[in-house]
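Sample pair:
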Amino acid sequence: MIESIQEINNQLIVLFVAIPLLSFVATLFWKNKQENSISGIVQITKSIYIIWAVGYFILWGISGSPEIHLNLVTIYESNDFVFAIHFYYDRITAVFSLLGAVSFFLVTTFSRYYMHRDEGYKRFFNTILFFAFGYNLIIFSGNFETLFLGWEFIGLSSFLLIAFYRNRYLPVKNAFKVLSNYRLSDVALMLMMWMMHHLTHSNIDFTELSKVKIMVTQNKQETMAIFIVIMILISAMIKSAQIPFTSWLPRAMEGPTTSSAIFYGSLSVHIGTFLLLRTYSFWEDMLWFKYTIVFIGLATAVISTHISRVQPTVKTQIAYSSAAQIGIIFIEIALGFHFIALIHIAGNAFLRTYQLLVSPSVLNYLIHNQYFHYHPTPVKKLTKFKATFFILGIKEWGLDQFFYRYLYTPFKWIGKQFDWVKKTKSILIIFILGIISVVYFLANDNIKSFDGALSISMLTIALFLVLFSFSYRGSALRAWGALMVSHIFILAGISNNEKEIKSVEVFLYISGILISFIIGSLALYRVKKIDKDISLNQYHGYVYEEKNTA
């Protein structure tokens, strides 16, 4: 009996990912004005989802709470690499699954009325369902590859909801600022996966991390292990808004209040803690790493608490308060108190969701109440010490300025050294050289003896083109073209380095890049026709004038 239940659980775990994905696809076929149809699909989805999450948890408990594995499909396979979608269910997954189901139910129910007659009603629910799909991919992932897919989907949906009110400048600006932080976490996660592959020479599941830890000790590969755990920590710190990456969290709350609740109050902001919990078996014996996590968590808890107490807006106060609690959760995870950490995660998530959802009503009540019961408090003169910390808290300890000065400004400076690329002849010459390099490397195997230096050269050129696009403000079309050419050199570097690359793989890579480039170019040319200005020096508001194109 128990074995049959366990077998059913193994097969039906895929429904956690299929339900939000199918609902997302279904809502694409309705127009924005058809609110009843869209909300009907979402209401059915949320009901099925929460019933299934609770029911699956009960079945899992009846069968003895075993670790459930499912290899769904292999996307890519070569002699030394397998990219497989692997699902995994255990105690950690169960908690995050129930947390996600309840949060999704509450927020979508609230949003049905909160977003009524909003011009982005359909777009909002499309993105929420897409987020639910990515979130479930992460928490049910059984390997790093599956987790990375969900990691990317959550990042994309976060960007879309931060910039939800896209006809205003500030939401769009903050969306790109948050996206830049997310891309740093993506790079760290990819570097971790790359080094893990070099360490193990195979694709591993999360349950095999303890074996990898033993292998590191036996083979004396501590340097690789140190690099891996540092990348894990950077990814978790950015995703969970820990010091010094905390400043993106309040800026991410430019979207609707309900999306802020489910993203940055409950689910998305706790993904960093999930990553630490999932990889704990790999770094549990690294005391220096635990001390580092404790220090970061403690610093975040103290600094974020101080900042939250002097901020003038509700969302900013809640954001920094949430980051402070997550800092304490980091400490609990490092100390091995995982059961307490899971309870803390659920409690913090529900509290912040509640605070964000009721904040408009509370503010309305307080504004109304002050007309009848307002009594000004006497002004107290602050000491120099208290005034210093007050100003420091108001300025968020200079975290945003720190990243602008020491991260973005150097990248912009490097990109500006390649201003000569903005000339049409320069871009065409580089493009032709890139095409020749790709064709030559694919057609000749004799040049493989120099593949290391040539690949690095090609990828370096691609990096410089990306940095040029990042810093150039004269024309969006030229920056877009430079990005396209950078992908040509990326392909050239990969083609030269990989001995067994297939034509179909090259075609798939090129087709995706080319289709995106054509669609983007057509949109930019359409924008250029409006007032002949396509520079990136200001916010033009074309999304308001050209709603259909947007």
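The longest strand covers residues 68-77.
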